[in-house]
C-alpha cells in the first residue's frame, strides 16, 4: 500500500508539473518544434549523456579504493545503469540504494562503505554542480529582466553548497575518529546505536577524501562527469532549436539537477519544468521551443537507460527481485558496527 501511494503521489506531481509546462503551449507549435528538431543531434546528446557514467564509475572506484582497491569496472557500470533504470521506473528513487546494494551483493565491497561511497558521490555531485554554475555565470548572457531570478538561484545554490560542505566535513570527521565514536555508541540506547552505526557506514565511504592522492582524481572525475552531462544537454538543447551558449547550460545545472531529483516517475515533469523555467526566464528562449527542448532532451536522457538497462539485466543474470533485495539491504546498515576495511 505504501508503494502504491508513493507511485500515485509521484504520478500526480508529474501531471501537475507537466500541466504547468504545457498548459499555455500551442500544440501545433510544439508539434512543429519537435518535427524541426535535429534528430541526429539528439542521438549524439543521448550517447554523450550515457558516456558520463564512465567518469562516474572511475570516481566511484577512487572513493572505494581505501576499502576495496581495484574493483572491476564492469560490475560498477552495471550497478550504475541498473540504479538509474530502477529510479526511472519505480517510485521513491530507490535506485540510489539499489546501486550500492547491488555492487555489494555481486563483489567483495562491504555494504557500509558501498552505501557511504554513494552518499559521498551525491555530495560531490553537488559540489561539482555549484562549481560549474559559478563558472558559467561569469560569461553567460542573460535575458533582460532575469536579474531577480538569477539572484534567487544563486543564493539558493550557495545555501545548498554550504549544507553539502558541512555534510562532507562532518562525515569525514566521523571517519577520522571512528574508534572514539564506536566507544561512545556502545553506551547509548539501541535506536541511537542503530543510527550511529548507519552513520559510521556512510562515513566509511568518505575515507578516500582524507587522502590527497585520491582526492585529486575524485575532484577531476566529478568535474569531467558533470561537464559531460552539460555537453550532452547543450547538444540536445541546440538540436531542439534553442540558441543558447554552453555557459548557459552550466548556469542551468542546479535547476536541472533539482528537477530530476523531484520524486516523479522517470523524472517526468520536474525536468521539463526546470528546463522551461531556465530557458525562458533566464535566457529568453521562446516558451514553445523551451517546452520542446525539455521534452526532447528528457527523452534523450531516459530512453538509452530504458534500452540498455534490460539488456544488462539479461546479460548479467540480474532479476527485478535482485534489485529490490539490493535496495532492502540498507535496513541492515545500522544493525552492527561497520568495518571500514583496510586502508592504504
Task: Set down the secondary structure blueprint.
Layout: H1 2-22, H2 27-35, H3 39-64, H4 73-89, H5 95-106, H6 111-139, H7 147-176, H8 178-186, H9 190-203, H10 212-239, H11 246-261, H12 270-283, H13 287-316, H14 320-328
Helix pairs in contact: 1-12, 2-13, 3-4, 3-6, 3-10, 3-13, 4-5, 4-13, 5-6, 5-14, 6-7, 6-9, 6-10, 6-11, 7-9, 8-9, 10-11, 10-13, 11-12, 12-13
Outline of this structure?
This protein is mainly alpha-helical and 344 residues long. The protein has helices spanning 2-22, 27-35, 39-64, 73-89, 95-106, 111-139, 147-176, 178-186, 190-203, 212-239, 246-261, 270-283, 287-316, 320-328.
Number of helical regions: 14
Strand content: under 5%
Beta strands, count:
0
- How many domains make up the 3D coordinates? 1
Look at the structure and give the mean pLDDT: 85
Radius of gyration: 21 Å
Shape: globular
Give helix % range: over 70%
Ranges where pLDDT stays below 50 over 5 or more residues in a row are: 336-344
Characterize the structure shown:
With 344 residues, this protein is an all-alpha fold. The protein has one domain. The protein contains 14 helices and no strands. The chain starts with a helix and ends in a 16-residue tail after the last helix.
Q: Descriptors for this entry?
A:
344 residues; mainly alpha; 77% helix; globular; disordered C terminus
Amino acid at each position: 500500500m505504501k508503494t502504491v501511494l508513493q507511485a500515485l503521489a509521484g504520478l500526480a506531481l508529474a501531471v501537475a508539473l507537466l500541466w504547468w509546462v504545457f498548459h499555455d503551449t500551442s500544440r501545433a507549435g510544439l508539434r512543429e518544434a519537435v518535427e524541426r528538431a535535429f534528430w541526429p543531434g539528439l542521438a549524439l546528446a543521448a550517447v554523450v549523456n550515457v558516456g558520463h557514467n564512465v567518469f562516474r564509475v572511475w570516481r566511484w572506484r577512487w572513493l572505494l579504493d581505501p576499502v576495496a582497491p581495484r574493483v572491476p569496472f564492469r560490475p560498477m557500470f552495471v550497478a550504475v545503469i541498473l540504479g538509474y533504470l530502477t529510479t526511472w521506473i519505480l517510485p521513491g528513487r530507490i535506485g540510489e540504494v539499489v546501486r550500492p546494494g547491488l555492487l555489494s551483493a555481486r563483489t567483495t565491497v562491504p555494504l557500509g562503505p558501498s552505501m557511504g561511497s554513494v552518499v559521498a558521490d551525491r555530495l560531490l555531485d553537488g559540489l561539482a554542480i555549484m562549481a560549474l554554475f559559478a563558472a558559467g555565470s561569469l560569461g553567460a548572457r542573460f535575458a533582460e529582466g532575469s536579474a531577480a531570478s538569477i539572484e534567487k538561484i544563486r543564493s539558493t545554490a550557495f545555501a545548498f553548497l554550504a549544507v553539502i560542505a558541512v555534510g562532507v566535513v562532518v562525515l569525514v570527521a566521523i571517519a577520522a575518529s571512528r574508534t572514539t565514536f564506536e566507544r561512545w555508541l556502545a553506551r547509548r540506547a539501541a535506536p541511537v546505536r542503530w543510527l550511529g552505526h548507519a552513520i559510521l557506514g556512510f562515513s566509511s565511504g568518505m575515507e578516500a577524501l582524507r587522502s590527497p592522492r585520491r582526492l585529486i582524481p575524485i575532484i577531476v572525475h566529478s568535474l569531467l562527469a558533470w561537464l559531460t552531462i552539460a555537453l550532452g544537454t547543450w547538444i540536445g538543447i541546440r538540436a531542439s532549436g534553442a540558441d543558447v551558449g554552453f555557459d548557459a547550460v552550466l548556469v542551468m545545472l542546479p535547476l536541472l539537477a533539482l528537477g530530476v531529483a523531484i520524486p516523479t516517475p522517470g523524472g517526468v515533469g520536474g525536468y521539463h519544468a526546470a528546463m522551461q523555467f531556465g530557458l525562458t526566464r533566464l535566457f529568453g528562449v521562446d516558451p514553445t521551443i523551451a517546452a520542446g527542448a525539455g521534452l526532447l532532451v528528457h527523452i534523450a536522457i531516459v530512453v538509452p537507460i530504458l534500452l540498455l538497462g534490460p539488456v544488462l539485466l539479461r546479460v548479467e543474470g540480474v532479476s527485478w527481485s535482485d534489485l529490490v533485495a539490493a535496495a532492502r539491504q540498507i535496513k541492515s546498515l545500522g544493525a552492527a558496527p561497520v568495518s571500514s576495511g583496510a586502508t592504504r
